[in-house]
Amino acid sequence: MGIMTLLITLHNVGSSQRCQEFVQIASGLGFKNLAITKASGSAASRGIPQAQKIAVKSNANFMFLGNISDVIEVYNPDEIILVAPPPFGDDLWNPEEVKKESEEKRLLLIFGGSSPGLSRRELDMGKAVNLDVPIEVGSIGTLAIALYELKKVLKE
C-alpha cells in the first residue's frame, strides 16, 4: 500500500487575514504541505509573511507561487481537485473518493481565496467539485469544511 502526498493550495487571495486563516486551519488539521498562489494587495505584502511565520511554527512546508500552473510545474501532481462554491463545481466533494483513489499519488487540492476565487478556465485544470452546504460559506468556510471532512476520512 502506497502513501498519498497532498498539497493544499489557496489561489487568488487579496486578504492578509485569509492567508493566515488558511495556514492556521490547514496546519491545525494536520495538513503540512501548503501553498498560496496569486496573492495580491495586503495578502501579498502582509499575508504571505504572516502565513510563512505560522507555517514555520506549525512545522508545515509552505510555498508562495505566482499561479496554479507554477504549482503544477513544481509539484507535478497525479490528480488535481479544485473545490469551488456551488454551482461552480461539477460534482459534489467526496473525501472518501480522495482516500480511495489517491494511494501512491500526488494530489493537488486547490481552494479559491475569494468568491468564487476560481475562474472557469482554472476549474477546467482538474476535477471541479463543490460542497453539499445549504448556503454560501465563503472561501475559508469551504476550506475548513472540506479539510475537516478529509481529515476524518484519512484517519479511518
Protein model, in words:
The protein has a seven-stranded parallel beta sheet, sandwiched between helices. The two termini are 15 Å apart. Helix 1 (16-28) packs parallel to helix 2. The protein has one domain (5-155): SPOUT methyltransferase, trefoil knot domain (Alpha/beta knot, 3-Layer(aba) Sandwich), CATH 3.40.1280. The protein is 42% helix and 25% strand. By secondary structure, it is an alpha/beta fold.
Write the layout of secondary structure elements.
Blueprint: E1 5-13, H1 16-28, E2 33-39, H2 42-57, E3 61-65, H3 68-75, E4 79-83, E5 91-92, H4 95-101, E6 106-112, H5 120-123, E7 127-130, H6 138-155
Parallel strand pairs: 1-2, 1-6, 2-3, 4-6, 4-7, 5-7
Helix pairs in contact: 1-2, 1-6, 4-6
Q: Structural class of the secondary structure composition?
A: alpha/beta
CA radius of gyration is 14 Å
Number of domains: 1
Q: H/E series, N to C?
A: EHEHEHEEHEHEH
Unreliably modeled segments: none
The helix tally amounts to 6
Strand order of the largest sheet: 3-2-1-6-4-7-5
Average per-residue pLDDT, rounded, comes to: 91
Which CATH C-level class is it? Alpha Beta
Task: Characterize the overall form.
Answer: globular
By DSSP, the count of extended strands is: 7
| Share of residues in helices | 40-55%
CATH topology: Alpha/beta knot
CATH architectural group:
3-Layer(aba) Sandwich
What composes the largest sheet?
7 strands, parallel
CATH superfamily: SPOUT methyltransferase, trefoil knot domain
Q: Give the N-terminus to C-terminus distance in angstroms.
A: 15 Å
- Give the DSSP E fraction (strand runs of 2 or more residues): 25-35%
